[in-house]
Amino acid sequence: MSSKLMFYVLKRVLLALMTIWIVITVTFFVMHSVPGGPFVGEKAISKEAEAALKAKYGLDKPLLEQYVTYLKDIVTKFDFGPSLKLRGRQVINVIFDGMKTSAVLGGIAAACAAVLGICLGAVAALRRNKLIDKVIMVITTAFVSMPSFIMGSFLLIIFSVKLGWLPANGTTTSGLVLPVITLMLYPMAYITRLTRSSMLDVLGQDYIRTARAKGVSKSKIIFGHALKNSLIPVITYFGPMLAFIVTGSMVVEQIFAVPGIGREFISSITNRDYTMIMGTTIVLASLIVIMNLVSDLLYKAVDPRIEFD
User: How far is CA 299 from CA 116, 208, 237, in A?
Assistant: First the structure.
């Protein structure tokens, strides 16, 4: 590893840590500034019982002291504390349990979206203004324009309710098919359009025309030059997209009853579970920051001419 690359990675890691700290700080103080609390909805709870619960979880202490303690626990023990609603369970354990499903669901959806999107985008670029290009553009435009909850509900009604081919519950392996398709369609369509536009731009470059003039085979021009160099915008999009799909599939997980981290995040917001909200937010922010760094490093593998500053 060159010194320039090491310096770049170190700089990005420091920026990543600062970003995560800002996310933690803003989320913590905004969350505690909203009226109400995690114990307001408890049935027939007395003021004495509410005070005892706050003392148990340290919510009776000054806000700044709570913030410092929370930061210290994260840095020294990677401890997000206990859930305020799921009694007896630690936030980190709930997140890991949910991530087991969300990671599989999001990973498969992201991989399928990338492969299909790149293939369709390349075909559309190579058959520009032909029938197949127009069909691909119409279909991808529809998928980009359609919200995931509409697509998920549509697939659920057709393949589970009407045809009965697939289960509506996402707790089984076969039950993950529809959630994967729902999560895959939007990024696949976006990647298709990115690949098409980028590849059309690359195909018009001088070095492609020079390669053709030298008699380089069509397959080598397409796969060795055009497609490889057109992947940079896709890599830029893929990193944050993967992090978002893995942890941000909240609506889809609700529709298909998938026991993932998205469903836990929605429940934590509804229940004002402070520690669960903080834990899931930190995980999401960390994944996005990490995937952005990975995407930047992949640029060098795709195009060695890129220099790190």
Answer: 21, 20, 12
Q: E strands within the chain?
A: none
pLDDT per position as a tens digit, 225-257? 677 777 777 877 877 777 777 765 677 777 777
Residues 6+ apart with CB under 8 A from 150: none
- Are residues 233 and 198 in contact, defined by beta-carbon separation less than 8 angstroms? yes
Q: How many CB atoms lie within 10 A of CB 55?
A: 11
The answer to whether 82 and 275 are in contact (CB under 8 A) is yes
pLDDT tens column, 53-96? 677 777 778 888 888 888 888 888 887 878 777 777 788 888 88
Sort 260 into a burial class: Cβ within 10 Å, 0-12 / 13-18 / 19+: buried
Cβ 125 vs Cβ 196: under 8 Å: yes
Q: What is the C-alpha separation between 244 and 68, in angstroms, rounded?
A: 29
| Residue, of 30 and 43, whose pLDDT is higher | 30
Report residue 204 as tokens.
């018009």
First-to-last C-alpha distance (Å) of the chain: 15
Whether the CB-CB separation of 157 and 164 falls below 8 Å is answered with no
Per DSSP, 129 falls in state T
